[in-house]
Amino acid sequence: MNQAISNKEKAFYIDPTFNNPTGQSLSRRSREEIITYSRRHNMPIIEDDIYRDIWFDEPPLKPIKSLDNTGNVLHISSFSKSIAPAIRIGWLIASEKVIEQLADIRMQIDYGSSILSQMVVYELLTSGEYDDHVSRLRTILKDKRDYMLSILNDTFSDIATWDIPKGGFFIWVTFRGDINIKKLFAELINKEKILFNPGFIYGGKANTLRLSYAFENKENIKYALQKIQHYASIELK
């Protein structure tokens, strides 16, 4: 946030809960510090809380917006992660003036979201089926996360480290030495048709990458990790 302030940015964007790409969440202290900076420098915060519902063992900390008493935090989220990517419906929590301005801009862009999609989401929410759906989704994703972690523990421990995400879609991997991630990426995509996101595209270190357990089945997860481990081990020698 210091960098945003020194660069005279207009707003500070953050996804503090099950962050993309690391899968990690900010502590309460960090959230309080961000609010303090925001008040001191009158810096608006855009809090993207899109992964909040995808928790595994316990609900996450309250949003940064819950600490806001000046109206500096614009809290946004979406159903695109918890229901389906095609459901382009989200929501925001902000002052009435900001909501009216953003709604007007949205109408100018695409005349608003599909009425059918809105009706589907409304029915899911009012019937209680959304809560049941998200509960099942958490169970599925936690199982796939645990499966990916078991393979990492078995095959990557000598060459990399990682943190265990408590929700979301991602695991952030850091290799134990210098590695040519661009070469690793090219080899895997060209020879094996395996895609991962290099950490440097997010501003991460050159020896990092992001893995996702959200969309692939276990067979593909295992195959991809075995190939990544094989090529990475060669690069690290």
TrEMBL record:
> Which terms does the record give in the GO molecular function aspect?
pyridoxal phosphate binding; transaminase activity
Its domain of life reads Bacteria
The UniProt transmembrane annotation reads none
Concerning InterPro entries, the annotation shows: Aminotransferase_I/II_large, Class-I_PLP-dep_aminotransf, PyrdxlP-dep_Trfase, PyrdxlP-dep_Trfase_major, PyrdxlP-dep_Trfase_small
Q: Which Pfam families does the protein's record reference? A: Aminotran_1_2 (PF00155)
Q: Which UniProt keywords apply?
A: Aminotransferase, Pyridoxal phosphate, Transferase
Question: Which metal ions or organic cofactors does this protein require, according to UniProt?
Answer: pyridoxal 5'-phosphate
Please name the GO terms of the biological process aspect recorded for this protein, alphabetically: alpha-amino acid metabolic process
Aminotransferase class I/classII large domain sequence ranges: 17-228
PANTHER family named in the record: AMINOTRANSFERASE, KYNURENINE_ALPHA-AMINOADIPATE AMINOTRANSFERASE, MITOCHONDRIAL
| Protein name listed in UniProt | Aminotransferase class I/classII large domain-containing protein
The opening ranks of the lineage are:
Bacteria, Bacillati, Bacillota, Bacilli, Bacillales
